[in-house]
Amino acid sequence: MLQQTQVKTVIPYWERWMRELPDIAALAGASEQRVLKLWEGLGYYTRVRNLQKAAQQIVAEHAGQFPRDFGAVLSLPGVGRYTAGAITSIAFNAPAPILDGNVIRVLTRLFDIAGNPRDKVTNAHLWHLAAQLVEAAALHSSLFTPHSSLLISGPCSALNQSLMELGATLCTPQNAKCPQCPVRSHCAARREGRVDELPNLGPRAAATAREFHAFVVEQDGEFLVTQRPARGVNGGLWEFPNLEVTGDTRPPPDSLKQLLQITARCEPLCEVRHTITRYHITQRVFRVRSAAAADGIPTDTRWLGLAELHALPFTSAHRRILRRLATGS
Questions:
Q1: Residue 212 DSSP code
Q2: Model-level pTM?
Q3: In this predicted model, what pLDDT tens digit does every residue of 94-131 receive, in sequence order?
């Protein structure tokens, strides 16, 4: 959950998740729709699919017990080098390095690394530095006392958590709090006056605007919805019928006719704006009341009442449309 999502956002999701799926076996055996519904709103839904696949692999290969070995953790679906290192070092005190955005920022400033962290050579160098630090923590574990507040799980755990926390609270992207930093005397970027220049991430990709027409089609108290294909972005989630019209000046009734073979009046309902990666997306939403809507609609759509809609996992933008439909605000 913490991949791509802030801690304050995750907490209520995590609490609800643990009430519903309290252990690995429960997650492994849950239906995909239930899992997607619990994740609804966190985005990047490949994460939760991999999470369930990992639970199923743990049940099948590790008798339902989470593995402690770095290689075994790395073999789980959706787990890469950083996640495996974070889990095994923080939970099990293994001398495994981590490299996330916060740690990258700390290391590039601490060692005055000017290269782009995304470049292969610079990235490998940063991984090497992170490994040296956590290995040094393991070797010098005698410096930690049993009563130290840092020594919760061990020196490797404390070191990696400290690097992440330093980047999150003091060594921030803008307005770094250098006077409060415990390692400021060792920071090469501070000595050289280059803190604000690092890390050198290069220019950002230009944002792209995209526009969609979305339709809330109602008939006899039921609404038309469609499920996205299992493969692809937001696979398996539900949404109202919609059509991309970026760069197209067609009126909404023409989009409705192309999409659903329905000819009807389109009443403006709302406008939903959201951002996915580098795309700024505008959903212009129209309400359609049509007694003739049942003829000729695509086979991948369903008519459902409001209560049924609320039980389904919706994409974030279309969940906002559903909320507007249900509350009128």
A1: E
A2: 0.83
A3: 999 999 999 999 999 999 999 999 999 999 999 999 99
- Could you tell me whether strands 222-227 and 208-219 are parallel, antiparallel, or unpaired per DSSP bridges? antiparallel
SS3 for 140-208 is CHHHCCCCCCCCCCCHHHHHHHHHHHHHHHCCCCCCCCHHHCCCHHHCHHHHHCCHHHCCCCCCCCCCE
| Tens digit of each residue's pLDDT (9 = 90 or more) over 209-227 | 999 999 999 998 999 999 9
Domains contained in the chain, CATH given: 96-202 (1.10.1670.10), 208-327 (3.90.79.10)
**CA distances (Å), origin 64, targets 24, 29, 326:** 6, 12, 41
- How far apart are alpha carbons 103 and 213 in whole angstroms? 41
Task: Return the SS3 of 236.
Answer: coil
At 323, is the secondary structure helix, strand, or coil?
A: helix
